[in-house]
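Why run this: before we spend reagent on co-expression, it is cheaper to look at a predicted model of the complex and decide which construct boundaries make sense. The entries below are exactly what would go into the expression plan.
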Amino acid sequence: MYRGGLGMLAWTMHRLTGVGVLLFLFMHIYETSLILQDPSVYNHALEIYRKWWFKPIEFALVAAVIYHAGNGVIVMLVDLLPNATRWHKKAVSYGAVVFGLVMIPVAWIVMIGPMINKFSK
Amino acid sequence: MQATRARPAGRGWEWFCWLYMRISAVVMIGLVLGHLYFMHIVNSTDTISHEFVSQRLATPFWRIYDLVILLFAMSHGVIGTRGIIEDYVRKPGLRRGLQWTLYVLSAAFTIAGIYVLVAFQPGQLSR
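The model came back. Tokens follow.
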């Protein structure tokens, strides 16, 4: 069934963000496991998360999760509601706008603010 | 390739996986967005530390919360990645190899994650 380029692009992004978040989950489990060792070990590992260059990566992670959740809702609606071929592209377009708007405060709080903070010190 | 994964016919294992992806998704929308909000917006990677995580894991609520996220996220991720391998890797041997690598790796990390959440005792080291 042909559903148009935009729908396929959204699905490809869904898969890429999904695999990306799964890979992060592996790293996240490893890093959290350091909590069983001396506090200095865990705190030392967390210093990487506090570096200025990590902030864009952290933002990418948060954005990937939010994208995956948002597109996941569209995927479920496509399964549940009739005539999905007619409105799926439109839902993806509107979804992209909502995603962009949500990303503005998220980028500020997670990435831009902390980076300004670190450079002004 | 199409724009979503088609619902499998019948009521077999593939259908169960298809349904499970949607059930786990609905559960995780609340849990994972809550986790992101609490750890990255209310708090941040600049403020979390061994002390913070110890206090957090001292309450059974957060331990169970984290355990539920771990199990749902890992199983959802494994089924999703298994589907991707199925769609893109056509050689049967390579496909099986990649899928088993995925299963073994994710099982090992899941066991490690459960162990951390169960075995950790707050204050055992920091006092």
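The radius of gyration of chain A is 18 Å. Helices of chain A lie at 5-33, 39-50, 55-80, 84-119. Bring this page to Monday's planning discussion.
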